[in-house]
Amino acid sequence: MPGGTWRDNPDKCILFDNGAYNIKYGTTATEGDPKTMFNAIGKDRSTLSFFVGNEVLEKLNKGQTNLTLTFPLVRGLLHDSDIETMIWKKIFSSFGKKKKVDEKTSCFCLTTPPVLPDIVLERYGEMVFEDFGFDAFFKTSGQSMLCEFAKDYFKDDEIDDECQLILDSGFSFTYAVPIFGGMPIKHASTRIDIGGKLMTNLLTEIISYKEYNLTGETLLVNDIKEHLCYVSTEFDNDLEKCKNKDTEILKEYVLPDYNTTKKGYPRDFDPMRQSAEQIITMGNSRFTVPEVLFNPSNINIHQAGIPEMISQCINKCPEAMENLLYRNIIITGGNANFTGFAERCELEMIGDESIQHPTGFKPDSADLRIFLTPNPEFNTWHGLQMFTKRDDFEDYVVTKQEYEDEGVRAFRRYNL
Ligand SMILES: Nc1ncnc2c1ncn2[C@@H]1O[C@H](COP(=O)(O)OP(=O)(O)OP(=O)(O)O)[C@@H](O)[C@H]1O
User: Fold this and answer.
1) Which controlled-vocabulary keywords does the entry list (predicted)?
2) Which of 83, 94, 371, 387 has the greatest CB tally within 10 Å of its CB?
3) Which atom of ligand 1 is nearest the CA belonging to 332?
């Protein structure tokens, strides 16, 4: 067990970027990328035994498809703290004997959504201090930590030090969060109720209707989505190409048979190929699914698409910040991995004949600069790690003693 306390031993700051899909975890001393833990449990419908975190992925990858998945975070918020506790325990036990987590001398650092109801904050306080018995707790929005990362990573591009707008498109939602002086401007934070989960569900429906019933095969469809979907920068053109069976767009996904192959894979469409495998042909669903991020009304969600949401968010901020925010937009989150995501945002913000909003969403007077983080899923965690190395980190930490004296108010001392 490592000696000292979190104040002097970087192994004792435990860092969780607590995504609704994956928890990215490590310590301040971790070198390289964090590890990930699937943030769900799976219950075997026949034996009722259950699997926790990555065990679920292992079972699913081996072809065990009769698992019911339960996610402890629902719509981004903690919904089932017992399940979350099980998954956190699984992570702590993975640290091994040598680096065994000693809660009494460790600080637990956690990312949460930018706006967190008191009742959820209270439950996190209970879990961290009462159930696990940590000595200290640092709670922050993921977006503030992403900023910490981006300010360093893009410093040569002269990203503004004070003022940025984070566009974070993850599993549950897509957020636009303006940041000033490292702190989110909460009243201006805006969100659309579309994230990776909804898009995977949508693709499941489309494939199940047109080809094979893949209901319940969430991870398989997720894999198809991650390999084959993209954000179109020429939507009408791409639709036309699909009608003409253009092989530039048509792709195939070979389904696993769980006998000779355990994993599916994508490949080019070849009309001449004779094939014994079960195949899904992906045409316009490759881009109509991610299109819902830009046109939510396509699936009857009456909210603004991403570029309009960004401008709505900036409009809620003081006018003096407007130019700075448009000049410092940082895109992150797992969905930012879709090819074309950042380009499409830029096209629609500026306005372009090839897309549906030719006039654009930014004022003519504002310059636009969009920064795409290099490894969108991990950058928030890296920002968190950088933050815990700052000289003033301790000022943002709530100790067990402070929590016992002040309760949940102790977390309101700072606004990250
Ligand atoms: N290469 C990819 N292409 C498309 N989508 C991807 C890719 N990689 C990851 N994703 C999607 O990103 C989503 C997860 O993103 P992220 O890790 O930012 O979310 P999270 O932090 O777990 O959740 P949240 O931010 O909602 O709390 C998943 O839906 C996943 O399918």
Assistant:
1) Cytoplasm
2) 387
3) 18
CA of residue 333 to ligand 1 center, whole Å = 6
Mean pLDDT of the chain: 91
Read off the pLDDT of residues 130-140 as tens digits, 9 standing for 90 and up.
Answer: 999 999 999 99
pLDDT of amino acid 247: 83
Number of folded domains that form the chain: 3
Contacts made by residues 253-256, CB under 8 angstroms, sequence distance 24+: 253/224, 253/227, 253/228, 253/279, 253/280, 253/282, 254/278, 254/279, 255/212, 255/220, 255/279, 255/280, 256/63, 256/220
Q: Strands 329-332 and 370-372: what pairing?
A: parallel
CA-nearest residue, atom 4 of ligand 1: 226
The tokens describing 221, both together, are 């469809």
Q: What is the mean pLDDT of residues 190-215?
A: 94
Residue 297 inside a domain? The answer is no
- Rounded to the nearest angstrom, the distance between the alpha carbon of 373 and the centre of ligand 1 is 14
Give the CATH number for residue 353: 3.30.420.40
CA-nearest residue, atom 31 of ligand 1: 196
Residues at CB less than 6 angstroms from ligand 1: 19-22, 76, 170-173, 195-197, 222, 226, 333-335, 337-338, 377
Structure tokens at 160: 């503004």
CA 153 – ligand 1 centroid, Å: 21
Looking at the structure, tell me whether residues 135 and 211 fall in a common domain: no
Of the candidates 14, 185, 23, 7, the residue with the CA atom closest to the CA atom of residue 112: 23
Q: Are residues 131 and 160 in the same domain?
A: no
Tens digit of each residue's pLDDT (9 = 90 or more) over 282-330: 999 999 999 999 999 999 999 999 999 999 999 999 999 999 999 999 9
pTM: 0.91
User: How high is the pLDDT of residue 364?
Assistant: 84
CB 231 within 8 A of CB 287: yes
Residue 376 Cα to ligand 1 midpoint, Å, equals 9
Mutating to test ligand 1, I would choose from 16, 17, 18, 21 the residue with most ligand atoms within 8 A of its C-beta, which is 21
Q: Which atom of ligand 1 is nearest to the CA of 173?
A: 26
Instruction: Give the range of the structural domain holding residue 230, as residue numbers without chain letter.
Output: 196-290
Residue 295 lies in a domain: no
Indicate which residue's Cα is closest to atom 25 of ligand 1: 170
Question: What is the average pLDDT across 343-367?
Answer: 82
Cβ atoms of 309 and 303 within 8 Å: the answer is: yes
- ipTM surpasses cut 0.85: yes
